[in-house]
Amino acid sequence: MDFQRNMWAEAWVQSVAARNFVALVVFGALAIEGLGGLETGGSFLSTLLWSYLAYAVHAQILLPPDNNAATNALRVIGFALRTFGIVLLITLAVFLSTIIFASVIGTEQSRVVLVFGLVAFVVLGLPVFVWLGTILPAYVAGRERGIGAAVRRGRAQFSWIAVRLLIGPGALLILSLALLSLLLFPVDYNGEFLSEDGDFQPMAVFALFLGFTVQAFATSLTAVILSRAFLRAEGMSETAAA
Fold it and tell me: CA-CA distance, 46 to 39, in Å (whole number)?
């Protein structure tokens, strides 16, 4: 199926259209970070926040123009729960495989274990996300959204989705981490906007702002890829899913 714009251009268009959501997640993520991650509740709150942007982009692509994602708070929560479930499965798969690997070679090999964890994230995490990812656009579009249907769609388009995720959101994730490492290293960032002496660290805020902005675009790009994969699987044209 052909689309009028490539995935990068489409992600930019969708990000501009969802600029209010982009601003919400970027400044919301900064607020959560500034409050120390809100301890135990921060993980789900962050997932809900980023899911809000992803849901908005999916809705812009898959639903009629008069649909307003901001009025669908309950559906956004349902979307976030599904996203959290997929992330949890990936995390468990990577964590368990890394624990098993560490027990075999010995925990003193920390750098080797870290490298293995990163490899496991790609080898195990990527297939899980490809197989289950179309649950998200299917949920937004109100189509068949079971695990079986998602796996069938993912298996049929595995290479199409996986390659685009790697050269798109995957590359942006690396860029985001590189930016954060480069900009936060000089200020010795410890997870708070204030230094140990109580001084405000503007460079930390600026670095995180850039990093979250890149992540916001990566979120839009991921939504574009999954929405298009869903449309391809269903044999539907863009904006025709409703």
Answer: 11
